[in-house]
Here is the input.
Amino acid sequence: MSQLKKLASQTALYGLSNVGAKLINYLLNPLLSYALVDAAGKAANGNMALLYASITFLNIVFTYGMETAYFRFSAHKEISKQTLFQTSFTSLFLSTLVLSVCLIFFNAPLAQLIGVDKAVFINYAIAIVAVDTIAAIPFAKLRQQEQPLKYAFIKIGGILTTLVLTAWFVLYSPGFCKAHPTSSYAQWIGPLSTTELLLLANLLGSLFTFLFLWKEWSSVRFKIDWTLWKQILSYSLPFLIIGLGGMVNEVIDRIMLGKLVSSDLLISKTTTAIYNFNYKLAIFITLFIQAFKMAAEPFFFNQSKEKEAPLLYAKVMHWFVITLCIAFLFTALFLEVWKFYIGPTYRSGIGVVPILLAANVCLGIYYNLAVWYKVSDNLKYGVIITLVGATITLVLNYIFIPTYGMFACAWTTFICYAVMMVLSFIIGQKHYPIPYAVKKISSYLLLTAVLFFVQVFVAHQLDSLFLKIISGLVAFALFFVYLIKQEQLHWRQLPFLKR
Here is the structure.
């Protein structure tokens, strides 16, 4: 159990710092959904949804698996840490410069392809991606040197900067510019659209983050060890394909929704904005999955040579699924409360939330299952599974979005991740058997689904919000009763309870 304690500790030190940053970022959700309720506000949020979906794709292309490769090669004692850092940082810096110039040159056709209103939005997006990419290796260095407090401070500081600037630009600036139309500030900010202001706040936040990494990158020399670079690249490129396929599954639905749901541009952007805000209500699962990914990747590699590694991976999966079930119920059972997290204008899409929560449960299990092809050097299967998922996403969204809108996106996401989860389990057990407690894990998942559907039926019969909350608490308590009964012989083995 000491290794489970170690993983829990790594999740707390590194993963939760990233979760904290993302959690602060999610505070923008109620701010924007309540503040921007007119047609222009909805269009701005629709633009932002499309742009952030595109930024996610660009992040994968710009980093091309280099961060994962940095962790992999930093474990090699014969490789100089300084040489590795300089080679990785220089490679990303130069490639970022080239890619940025090329994409800005084609900003107009890119804007038309994505479906946003102005080409200048693309310039902002590329600038954000460029700064974040150059910061990737310095952040990896902090994790490799085990400096979680500094990592968390910089991450959260950047997001707080973005949050404050967004509130300033959206809530304060319009009134100030109207009262002082001849001021230099009004002359600068006044002509900018809402979308440009949101992107500007994000860009300034990214620049703040990069500047606070000064100590990590200021002494770097732009130098590449070409032999090492080739080794790094040969390892990282498969992750580029896996990452791109994963991003197709994660964000292409918003782009396709904006393109296919209606021929009316305003309706398309409004629908995309509504879907995007409700998508974020899966926060408790998505943030936990992100935290786990950050901690688990180096952990799994470090344990891969141990004789008991498969048994350890099975234990990790067991407690991971229990945590996912709790996160699902915590959100899905109390949607009548969580819906106030977004403005009334955007609540028409609340029905997609349980579907997206279930999809993220499947995704979290898939990420855990994916350990087998990473540690056994079977990356080709990871590529194949990811491409199968991407194909499902593209085909089903294309067929059903025109008829079912955002619900087609939600169900397609669930089907995609469920298929990837099943494929990874079946193929993985043939190539790298892991003794998962399938029956017990399945019982937790089944109970979670039953409790949710029963509570939905009961809550539908109730008019009082208080009684709906009580019914949710009863269902939540029943899950814990079952959990304690099932784990009563092993509960002391929990990393945070073991004495």
Summary: The chain has a mean pLDDT of 83. The chain has one domain: 2-436.
